């Protein structure tokens, strides 16, 4: 998605130049369209980075959960003299609980990182940008 949009940016810039040269738009409109294209490029570039961050966070969470289950079963069998089935039942349940609790801060951090990373380079403050985004589709 983002890569294709970023690859199309030079074509959009050339289309603006062609419209300007053909007299279909004036200098002010061309400047406005160039600014929109630049903001779109900044947004999609930031989203590309944010999606890689969130994907890495999700992969790390899955890996940690898998390691916790295996280590819990091993500890249950070796230290607590549980059968493999009992150890799997107990430590899988504990790992799922731990995973749920640890994902709440991860969700908050990922959301905050996404908001900060995707903030474009416009002159508006972060608060006004967030407010404007919520006003775009108030019923959604």
TrEMBL record:
Family annotation (Pfam families): FHIPEP
Entry annotated with the keyword Ubl conjugation: no
One of the GO biological process terms: protein secretion
Native organism: Bacteriovorax sp. NZ8
Protein name: FlhA
Record key words, sorted: Membrane, Transmembrane, Transmembrane helix
InterPro entries: T3SS_FHIPEP
Keyword Membrane: yes
Transmembrane spans: 58-80, 100-118
GO cellular component, one term: plasma membrane
